[in-house]
Write a structure and sequence with these properties.
This protein is an alpha+beta fold. The chain folds into 2 domains: 116 residues; 40 residues, no CATH class. Helix content is 74%, strand content 11%. The chain is built from 1 helix and 4 strands, in the order H-E-E-E-E. A 4-stranded antiparallel sheet has the order 1-2-4-3, with no helix packed on it. The chain is rod-shaped, with a radius of gyration of 58 Å.
């Protein structure tokens, strides 16, 4: 009976070992599945958190970037417009000065022509008295002088 008992115990022990090994394998498989699921969940949650963090960082940098670009653009456009206005004002002033120079030169030519046409005779009035100022040498002994030039006095009537 000891032999049979031994065989039976041996058989039960093998059966228990096989059942235990089977249960351990099943437990290991379940543990692997749970660990894989947990790892996938952690990875997914980490990716979602990283995505949200990226969005926050983009938003955090986007506002100052837009404000900075807006300020830069405002300064740039304002400076450009001011420079264009100044350049146009200077150009207008130069053109006006050139036009005035032409007008002055025309007036000088006209005055020179008038002096030629009138032989240098000028009408002058001093305190209600009228004089004709003639060119130097036109009168041998001038009775009056106006501004150092010989002159003839006109009657008051």
């Amino acid at each position: 009976m000891t032999d049979r008992l031994r065989k039976r115990l041996e058989s039960e022990r093998r059966e228990i070992e096989e059942l235990t090994a089977s249960e351990l394998e099943r437990l290991a498989e379940n543990s692997r599945r749970v660990a894989k699921n947990a790892l996938r969940t952690i990875e997914r949650d980490t990716e979602e958190a990283t995505g949200r963090m990226r969005e926050l960082l983009v938003k955090a940098w986007l506002r100052p970037l837009i404000v900075g670009l807006s300020l830069w653009l405002g300064f740039f456009v304002g400076s450009w417009a001011t420079m264009r206005w100044l350049a146009r004002s200077i150009q207008d002033w130069i053109e006006t000065a050139a036009e005035l120079d032409r007008d002055i030169e025309d007036a000088r030519r006209t005055l020179a022509q008038l002096e030629v046409d009138t032989w240098g005779i000028v009408f002058h009035e001093i305190e209600g008295e009228r004089f004709v100022v003639v060119p130097e040498g036109a009168l041998a002994d001038p009775p009056w002088r106006v501004d150092g030039r010989p002159a003839l006095k006109l009657s008051n009537e």
